[in-house]
Design brief:
- It is a single chain.
- By secondary structure, this protein is α/β, with parallel strands linked by helices.
- It has 2 domains: 1-55, no CATH class; 57-328, Rossmann fold, CATH 3.40.50.
- 33% of the residues lie in helices and 21% in strands.
- The chain has 8 helices and 17 strands.
- The strands form 5 sheets. Strands 4-5-6-9-10-12-14-15 form an 8-stranded mixed beta sheet, sandwiched between helices.
- Helix 6 links the parallel strand 9 (193-199) and strand 10 (224-229).
- Helix 5 crosses helix 6 (201-215).
- The protein is globular.
- The N and C termini lie far apart (48 Å).
- Mean pLDDT is 87; it is low at 1-16.
């Protein structure tokens, strides 16, 4: 037993050492060759040129839990598609209570395009929840795509930039009452954990929301669990860097060849980049299927190796057809 404990500690230290070598190598202006674990080795079949892609897994204290996501996060994320979300999560999370719902026009210049979110709390599990709805219509999707060409907005001076549509959408909801309610919930339940989630567009808004409440000091990052499903790229490299430094528990779940998880493009004019940690299910996501936690943030690894992306995998997560979830309530 003692040997096993020593081995696990040594192996974790070895992973940390390799990540540090990779980071130092890139900082020196060279590339890290994954194939031979050497700095600047050439020719190299697989190399890393960005420090966020240096292999690093979540620490053991904040490990990914498939059952937690499957039984608690998915119902909360999918419930945001129902105008009355409590009807959806009550059968699966009977101790969860809806706090408030928020709807706002989240298009600054385009036609009416509503975004939706809700807050809830559970005095048994001692948690608060912010859940955000994904893209609700073809019109909204078009608005998002067109808005990509308008660039990005600064989130915080030390926390990079956010894709304009996600930035605006979050603050429209935040100013529509979400801020007041989450502050009141935090005041009433100061020691509770905060779960933040969403699917698709909702995943991007969840990322921004979690980052905002931590950066502004409403919550400390050790009290926040961020789990998103099919999240598109949300901010630039600086945003991803800040996020990774501040969030011990943050997982982006990707189903097989989900197209949305790879847009907007990483190499566009705004250099958008995913934050950690991707959890890739290269299967139908049944309870017996395996998953892979990607050690790199956003390179040609894990789901990015799949060039043949599709929308079907985006619409179904953990066996749940997300757009049809409200019909099950």
């Amino acid at each position: 037993m003692q040997f096993l404990v020593f081995f696990l500690i040594f192996w974790q230290f070895f992973d940390f050492l390799e990540a540090s070598k990779c980071t130092d190598c890139i900082a020196s202006g060279k590339h890290w060759c994954v194939t031979v674990n050497e700095c600047g080795f050439s020719p190299c079949a697989t190399s890393i040129s960005k420090s966020l892609n240096c292999p690093e897994l979540p620490d053991k204290a904040h490990a990914y839990d498939d059952n937690f996501v499957r039984t608690k996060i998915v119902p909360l994320a999918a419930s945001a598609l129902n105008p009355n979300p409590e009807k959806c999560f009550k059968p699966r999370l009977p101790t969860m209570t809806l706090s408030k719902k928020f709807s706002a026009n989240c298009s600054e210049v385009g036609p009416q395009s509503n975004c939706f979110s809700f807050t809830s709390f559970d005095t048994t599990q001692k948690v608060l929840v912010m859940s955000f709805r994904g893209t609700d219509s073809p019109l909204q999707l078009t608005d998002e795509i067109l808005d990509f060409f308008t660039g990005k907005k600064q989130f915080f001076p030390d926390a990079g930039n956010i894709f304009t549509y996600f930035y605006d959408a979050f603050f429209f909801l935040w100013n529509a009452g979400l801020q007041q309610d989450i502050r009141q919930l935090k005041y009433k339940y100061p020691d509770y954990e905060l779960w933040v989630t969403g699917h698709s567009l909702g995943g991007a808004l969840a990322s921004v929301a979690a980052s905002y409440v931590v950066h502004t000091g409403i919550f400390t990052s050790d009290k926040v669990k961020l789990v998103t499903l099919g999240q598109p790229r949300t901010g630039d490299y600086d945003y991803a860097t800040w996020h990774d430094k501040n969030f011990p528990y943050s997982f982006r779940i990707v189903h097989r060849r989900d197209l949305v998880a790879h847009i907007p493009p990483q190499d566009g004019a705004d250099k958008l980049f995913h934050h950690r940690s991707e959890v890739w299910y290269n299967n139908n996501m049944s309870t017996t299927e395996p998953y892979h936690i990607c050690a790199e943030a956003d390179g040609f690894y894990c789901s990015s190796r799949e060039l043949d992306t599709n929308i079907a995998d985006h619409l179904t997560y953990f066996g749940v057809f997300i757009p049809g979830w409200q019909t099950k309530c």
